From TrEMBL:
Record's keyword terms, sorted: Electron transport, Heme, Iron, Metal-binding, Transport
UniProt xrefs under PROSITE patterns: CYTC, PROKAR_LIPOPROTEIN
Keyword Transmembrane helix (UniProt): no
Pfam families membership: Cytochrome_CBB3 (PF13442)
GO molecular function: electron transfer activity; heme binding; iron ion binding
Domain Cytochrome c: 27-107
UniProt source species: Agitococcus lubricus
Protein name (Swiss-Prot/TrEMBL): Cbb3-type cytochrome c oxidase subunit III
Amino acid sequence: MHKILFFSLSLMGLAACSKQPHLQPVTLSEQQQILFEQSCKTCHANAANPAPQIGDKAAWEKRLEKGLPTLVQHAIQGFNAMPAGGLCATCTPPDFEAMITYMATAQTAK
């Protein structure tokens, strides 16, 4: 009995330590939707662009393993081919967090 309990607790502990990203879908505010349309969508809804596309779960999962705060920082500072600010001069860190979450959790590519 103790071995089963120990095994179960060990599995739960490993699952808790897992870096599997899990974000809940969000709805962008009206202002965030405008910002998204004017900035993020330019690259993230263009299959010819190497940016992770809206709703591409596999592409976003790899990035989310770094943590959402890191992705927000990348959006603010720029990262690889992404320009600083992600083409959005007025986006705040909460805006970036919402838009990244929106793109990563979209049900279908848009």
